[in-house]
Amino acid sequence: MALSNAQRQQRWREKRDAREKGRPEVVEAALLVAAEGCARLSGAEREALADRLQDVALRHLWRSHELNKVATKVRAGWR
């Protein structure tokens, strides 16, 4: 049975949204927007948001160290 146009559009939106949620810059932007409105969050919600922000920051740090290692190997001729 063929999908209707609305069903195809829905599947496409779901795939697009899943891709967007996996992109680090999208996740970071969403967390920063949430951080701007943290005054209206409860203590537990602020704690959870702070944990997520810290996790993203650590992942960026780890990735930068990995890229630095690659850059060092490239400068040395990578053999």
Walk me through what this model shows.
With 79 residues, this protein is mostly helical. It has one domain. Helix content is 82%, strand content 0%. It is built from 3 helices and no strands. The longest helix has 34 residues, at 43-76. It is flat. The mean pLDDT is 82.
Brief overview, please?
The protein has 79 residues and is an all-alpha fold. The chain has helices at 5-22, 24-36, 43-76.
Number of domains: 1
Extended strand count: 0
* Residue share in helix: over 70%
Radius of gyration: 20 Å
Beta fraction: under 5%
Provide keyphrases for this structure:
79 residues, mainly alpha, 0% strand, flat
Protein topology:
Layout: H1 5-22, H2 24-36, H3 43-76
Helix pairs in contact: 2-3
